Amino acid sequence: MVEPLDPQMFDPVCPSSAMPIRIGDKWTAMVVLCLEGGRRRFNELRGPLRGITPKVLTQTLRAMERDGLVTRTAYDENPPRVEYELTALGRSLLTLIAAARAWSREHLPALFEARDAHDSSPGPSALRIAETGEVIR
Amino acid sequence: MVEPLDPQMFDPVCPSSAMPIRIGDKWTAMVVLCLEGGRRRFNELRGPLRGITPKVLTQTLRAMERDGLVTRTAYDENPPRVEYELTALGRSLLTLIAAARAWSREHLPALFEARDAHDSSPGPSALRIAETGEVIR
DNA sequence: GATACTGGTTACCTCAAAGATACTGGGATA
DNA sequence: TATCCCAGTATCTTTGAGGTAACCAGTATC
What we know:
Two copies of one chain form a homodimer.
Chain A: E1 21-23, H1 28-34, E2 40-41, H2 42-46, H3 54-66, E3 70-75, E4 81-86, H4 88-119, H5 124-132
Antiparallel strand pairs in A: 2-4, 3-4
Chain A binds a DNA duplex through helix 3.
């Protein structure tokens, strides 16, 4: 069997939403990474994907199954058991995900730096904010 | 000066929305590609990005400027002139975009094939349920 | 005057994704 | 009899991306 998934494998502090690369839906890339080491069960995936609701995980997996990225195998047991596994097509995304992560490691700090510099610049943006009365928390 | 942009450079029939990779917002990757050959003016970008509204192009360019992907240069002329240009950080996305396009060229047909097969499959779940104890590939 | 040009801004609307919360079935277990 | 477990469903609400249309300032043209 495969090793259990590390519940800490995705750092919630890491603002992946700020990463300008997305594979599929919000959770698709993380599901692919979870399945990299072998087949996994539904509730096994819910550990590392902290905060995902069963509904959204179901939606994500169904969409991935439809696109041929994962296979779903349901065993007629009790309690029920369902396993998900990457297809060759799903595995082909791993290199792309690795490229995106490499880009992030190399360039994301510069992006945040630019963002911070922009947000704290005394330029016309401050004026525009003052004019609109927009509140920034 | 640079050559004019080809208004056909993005095929509207190409379902890029189906491509499971996204760089930044919906238009970010296309803007990067438009700026690959040199600086461009606002309305120059609106040609290839068929269907983009000025509001969304403004939002996209502002966000990219904030993230240090493009520079915005406004000339105090009449009529006004504004030019956008890729930064080194923005250019660093080109390799990632190339990787995503390579993946799509290679694997997107298989994805669509899987999707079509799934959508026109006869039985919903009966075939996908494994027999008890049976080893599934 | 009236209109057009450029590079936008603003208000308003729509729609789908995401999330919160609760509930299901049916055998196994206490 | 009651409860637990897994793999989901069902329903509602929120969020936010994206789109439509109107408007702006300053100059130049008709």
